[in-house]
Each structure stands twice: as structure tokens, then as C-alpha cells.
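#struct-queue
[09:14] JT: dropping the first one here, sequence first, then the C-alpha cells:
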Amino acid sequence: MGATEAIATGEGQEAEAAALLERTRETVDPELRRAVGSLPGGMRRVAMYHFGWEHADGTPAAAPAGKAIRPALVLAAARALRREDAAAGGAAVRAAVAVELAHNFTLLHDDVIDKDVTRRGRATAWTVFGIPDAVITGDAVMALALKLLAQDPHPASAAASARLAACMVELCAGQQADCAFEQRRHVSLDECLVMATAKTGALLGCACALGALYAGAGPEEVDAMDAFGREAGLAFQLIDDLIGIWGDPGHTGKPAGADLLARKKSLPVVAALTSGTAAGEELAALYAGPMAGDDVQRAADAVDRAGGRDWAQAHAADRMGRAVQQLSRAVPDLGAAGGLLALAEFVTRRTR
């Protein structure tokens, strides 16, 4: 199966991805709960709330769970390389849990940085417990991720720990650049792509690479899996940026146009601002002053008219094509990588 053919066969992949994500949650959640439950009382309470398992008062909750995309990538990558037999089916679970913990470290911090008051339809941890507790819990969750790998007897755990630590440094650099862009009037599209690759692509690439490491893959296969995840991650970010502008608040759990109100230099916005069009100039003027009334809707319309929406959609498709080409380096028979392809299709065709 070639790269183009693999993308074209999207029928039924959404259902496959949904089933894979559900199986991942069933596999990963017990270990994830055990890990979070090992945190000291105060941090455990914040983390349990953040993950949706408890209300603020500590009583059990059934809040919407995260999508589990990153741990699913770990497990799907291990399976795609066909080195994980039935007896070793759980070998990469700790790595999957570590990646999910690392991801939630970023969410706890991002909500504080972005001053987001809702996530998954409920109040963010910092608005409930305060900024210090949310930040400190995020730090502890990241330390917990590395501790899990350090204590894992699997022969790939040391390499996986080093790779995850390096990924988080890169991710933090991407987050820092993202924050810096909000203070700058002019940001190039190339700068924005580099930032998005670090902020989002790096962790998805790391997830795939950890799955390959736990499957016993060689360096070239591990790097190819990392490249696949990075390209898919950039496509993911492009779609996420579109949702940040045009997503349904009932599905996203965030106000309409939240990214525009925060004047985020997201990829569709930067594409519009650098388009050289009248609509791009209109958007720049809106971003330069305070937004009130219907200014957020006007900004969204300007992004659309300047071509930012179309560019982001087309570029997401292009990045997915590149992702499948990278995947074929590690798994020449793409039929064996159905789980990874289904997940890639899911993250680039989602609308919320």
C-alpha cells in the first residue's frame, strides 16, 4: 500500500480509531490512576480533579476523559512493528502512561499561561485550586512520568526516559516561542511552523518513537516513527488551530473564537496576516487593538477571507501525506500500520 493510497482509504478509519482509543483508555487508565494516586495528598487532589476522576471536593466524578491519542500512538507504534507478541502485549503500557502524564503536565501549565477557565467542559484546575497548586501539580506529574520510565525494568526504558526528557525541553521551547509571538507584531509563517512542530509535533513524535523502542526497533525505524508523529502532530495542530477559531463551544468546552480573543498567533492567523491581502490588513488592525462586541467574529471572517482557513486545511493534508511517507520507512507494508493510520486520519479530520 502506497502513501497516497493509504490516505485515500479513510472509510471506516474513524470507527477504528474510536475503538482503538477506547481500548487504550481501558488499558492505560488503571496504571495511570495508580501513578496519580501515588502523589502526595494535595497534589493528588488537584491531579485527580484535572483528569476528571474527582470533583473539587474529592467526591468521585465522571467528567469527559481526554482522547488518549498520545498513549494510543505508543501502543499502535509498538504493534505496527510486529515485535510485540501476545504475551508481551502490555510491555509498552508504562511508556504510554508516561506520555499521557507528560501531556497533562503541559495542559496544567498551558491553562495557567493562557488563562483558560474551562477544559473539557469544566473549570480548569488553576481556577479551582489556584495558580500555585496547578503549576506545582503539573511539575509533579511530569516528574512522575520520568519516574515511571526510570523504574520500568524493560530494556528500552532508559532510552525512552532520555527521549521523553529531551522532547519536553523541546516542547517547552515551543511553548515559550508561542508566548513570545503574542507580544510581537510580526511573526513569519516559517517561525510559526517551527514553533508548532516543537509544541505539538514533538510529543506525538516521541510517543511513536517510544512505541518503536519498546518494540525493539533499530535507530532508523525509531527515527522514522518519530518523523511520522511529528508530521502528523503538525497536521493535528493545524486542525486544532482551526477549531480554536471556528469550533463549536458545546463540543470544545471553550468560548467561540477563544484563540482570536487572546490574539494568538496560530497558524491560520499567521497565514492570513502574511497574505498581503486587504483582509490580512484588517485582521492586523483588529489584533492591534482591544476586541469588543463583534470584533471576534470580524477577525474570524478576516482570517477566512485572507485565505488562512483554506491554507491550514490544505497544509494539514500535505503534512499527513509526508507523515505516511515517513511511516513507510519504518513499516514498508502499511497494512500492518492500520492503527497508526486510523489515528492519523482521526486527528486530521476531527471537528472538535
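[09:21] JT: and here's the second one, same format:
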Amino acid sequence: MRINGVFSGGGLKGFALVGAVSELEKQGYQFKNVAGTSAGAIIASFLAAGYTADEIEVMLAEEDFETLLDPRRTLLPFPFMKWVTLYWRMGLYKGKALEDWFFDKLARKGCYAFGDLPNGSLKLVASDLTNGKMMVLPDDLENYGYDPSKFSIAKALRMSCGIPYFFEPVRLDAPNGTIVVDGGVLSNFPMWIFDDSPQTKKYPLIGLKLSRNQQEVPGRSIHNALQLFEALFSTMKNAHDEKYISRTHEKDIIFIPVENYSATQFDMDEQQKEELLAIGRRCTKDFLLTWSPSRPSATRRLNVI
């Protein structure tokens, strides 16, 4: 069966998404149109390029993710200099190594720009902080003076995965020098993204979300400033999407609880990777036992912070 898929962000926890896709493929489901944010954007892009879940799993298992962390060199080799760099560059790592990795993997399937894919088959979410609005790539690129068909998918992925302060933001050559960061800032799970596209409504939609069902999420314990910041960012990141996950949408979402894993653990060991893959497979298998395919319902898109 052909389906549309929407994948949530979650950093390195995205291994669980690969496990989920693997189970879906095993049971005869194929993705027609895909969308995602951050880690979900990576999985969506690889699927759109023609990779299978097994190929993605092997690709990720073989990768040393620490090599994708590329701090800028400083003239003075003092530890505090990285914080000076953070102040001016707005990120600890350049992100070029990450973008180059995306480019290499996509090129192996002959995918370089959005024009190499069927129209509307891939949509990625990023956050335009300069203008205070969400970006859907490639749809919104014309508004920034770019030809969507010629825009690099690897660059779009770098934009969608730009974790604030972790990776330097992407600067677009657009009016005001547009600053773009991780799409998860505004929409970490864009379940709404295919609602305005008539060509995609003929396919059932499945969402893959790296979290528990909202009703099952326990309250936070906030006792210090760090916990307060984490709670603020988490609430901000999820508030937009929770407005659209009604009971109607919930039945089409595979919730994958991975709260005990870190999104930025680039030194994740093999055991942890296998655990995440297994969680994704198990949750998907349980989901499919009761899932009845339906068409996306109408919602609307919110474009402001």
C-alpha cells in the first residue's frame, strides 16, 4: 500500500524512526510523499531519494557521527575560546561536515536538488528567525529569491537540522541576511503539511512521532534554571504541533517513546542504536494491529512564532 509519511525531529533518537520504517516496509507499506523536521527530515529525504530502511540502517550503523562535529579553529588554543566563537558564530559547530555527508549520501542515488525528485514528494521544515516564520522547503524558497528546483536538498537538510547553538545557523543570501535554524523550533512534527495539497490526499497518512502520546506524558519537575530552560524550549517546540494533533489525528500517528535517550549524543554506542531501532519496530508493529487507513483531514497552517 502507498502511504504518505510525516517524521518528527529528535536528533540521534531518529534511529527509532528507521526501525519504524523497517517494520512498515516489512508489512508491505511504501512511502509516496514524505515530510519531516530535523532528524525526521533526514529520514524523509533518504526515503524520497530511493533508500530502503535496511540501506539507511546500514548507512547509519557504519557512520562515526563524531566526525560530523566540525568546530571552527581559533588562533588561541584556550577552552574559553569556543564560547567566544559561540557568541559571534551562534553555534559550536560549523555544520559543513554534516551538509557534506548529506550531499554524498543523496548523490549516490542521483539526488542533488529538489528538481531531481517528483514534484511535492519531499517537504522539509526549517525556521526563519529573521522574519519570525516557518519555512517549508522547497515550497517557500521562491519567497527568498531561489529557484526551488535547483536548490540543494543537502543544504535544505542542513537548515532543517540546525540545532540552535549546537550548529551555526544557515545564512541565506536574501534580504536582511536571513538566519535559518532547526525546523523543530516552530514545528517539530508537521502532521499538517500535506493538508493543502490535493495530489497527496488520495494516499493515507501515517505520522511517526518520537515521543509518547500527549496524554501519557508526565509533568515536568522544575527546580533550577537549567530545568526551567529545558521546559521552556520543550513547551515552545511542541505547542504549535499539539494544536493539530486531535483525537482524529492520533489514530494515524505512531508514538515512539524515546525520552531516555539524548538527541545530541553523537558518540552513541551500538547497543543504544539497536535499542532505538527495536523500539521503533515494536511500536510500529503494535500500531498496525489496529490501524485503519484514512485520508488526511483539513487543518490550517500557522506561520508565525
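[09:30] RK: nice, looked through the second one.
[09:31] RK: Confidence is low (pLDDT under 50) at residues 296-305.
[09:31] JT: good to know. The CA atoms of residues 195 and 298 lie 6 Å apart.
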